[in-house]
Amino acid sequence: MKLSLKVAQGVHEGKLIPVPVAQFLIGREESCQLRPASPAVSKRHCAIQVRSDKVYVRDIGSTNGTFINDQQITQEVEVQHGDRLKIGPLEFVIQIEKSATAKPAAKLSPSEQAVTPKPAVAETLAEKPKSSPSHEEESEQLAAMLLGTDDGPPEPITADKIPAGTTVFELPAIGQEGAKEQPKPKDPNEGNTSNAAAAILKKYMQRPRST
User: Fold this and answer.
1) Counting CB atoms within 10 angstroms of each CB, which of 8, 20, 28, 100 has the fewest?
2) CA distance readout (Å), 56 to 25, 68, 96, 113, 187
């Protein structure tokens, strides 16, 4: 619970004075938590007490009296949020902010307490979202991009990147696995060998046959 006094009039109208202790004394005495500089306020004028989440105001034999909603009190009185407290020439509005209490969880019926069947494996796999890149993978991708080492398409070879003294025919074709092999020249002796074989066969066929 949060308790405070809101100044209702004067130059400090609207100012909130917190009440942080269980017994808050108001008066001109040094032991009081709030000490108004007015002769109409007694040394120990009144006390604000907090017990069991309730707020009470009690007059401590003051000379000019303590008033709640324009009614002078002679004994301890419980006050509510918005009540007006008057002490001599001073007037306050009591501000009480009670903390929200957590509601107890609703009890489940026997049917609701039954074990909920687990979804099929196929449904579980289908609903499982694709895993996003890990932190390390993202760091590596970022580092590759900053360093210019990403796996992009190969840079084309331009004329200014060809080494001096190199002909175009010595460079591999771009986008191909390798340069095509040049056809091998024919052996000049290959034709001579064929002619010699034909001459031998001709002589064999023209030899005289025995009767």
Assistant:
1) 100
2) 12, 11, 12, 46, 123
